[in-house]
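Below is how a single chain appears once it has passed through the pipeline. First comes the sequence as given, then the structure the pipeline wrote out for it. We keep one example in the README because the format questions we get most often are answered faster by looking than by reading.
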Amino acid sequence: MSIRADLAAAAGRLAESSDTPRLDAELLMAHALGISRETLLLSRLDEPSPGAFEGFLSRREAGEPVAYITGLRAFWTIELAVAPGVLIPRPDSETLIEAALAHFGTAGPRSVLDLGTGPGTLLLAALHQWPEARGLGVDRSEAALAIARGNAARLGLADRADLRAGDWGKGLEGRFDLILCNPPYIERGAALPRDVAEWEPYEALFAGDEGLDDYRRLAPEIARLLGEGGIACIEIGAGQEPAVRPLLEAQGLSVSAREDLGGHVRCLVAQR
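Resulting structure:
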């Protein structure tokens, strides 16, 4: 079967298990061929389909996220290695980098703190954006930190990225120009897509009955660690602004909101 025909058939097979069946099929086919999706679509559609594709497709039908199958996920201007045990980067989180870029411009911050760095998503995107910046990424998960360190090395950012185990800002000293944070914010018991609920780490998703437990801990730590003239860009879930904003304002921070591409308030920007 040609790649073109196999992609059409694969999209049909994934229609019930994915919101983006054609895109998933194309990404898996490109992975099976060891090429980019762009190269696949521009020049390889009439070639025979590779044998490895069926195995990848079956894994996706079983609910495994595409990013875990391919081992990679694009974010901002970088590509990150990901694996089970780390939260998969999402386009919505790019809203935090956009907010930071709007504040700092091309000059950028000198110091960056990423609380809950996972595979290094926000920290490494910021360091890639601003070559003069240095940063610290903190995470509770040693497995996530191992992946983040590998990403930093592969991107040539290891000399500017300090990645260490920690519990949010506990024990950290000094102040940072830019604080980035995408904490767990889903309420316990919430219904999630199968590929999220069954595959991504519980501790990176859920934060108590209201989804607010980590924000309550983070607000005073962010206020303590944020430098003068700097900003903290904090991701929130849809509809959480009325609950999270007062937690930050109670620490003496002024807060503004930034929407994602879907029109939801996704990022709260806090400053002194």
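Strands lie at 72-75, 78-81, 111-115, 134-139, 161-165, 176-181, 226-235, 254-259, 265-271.

See the next section for the split statistics.
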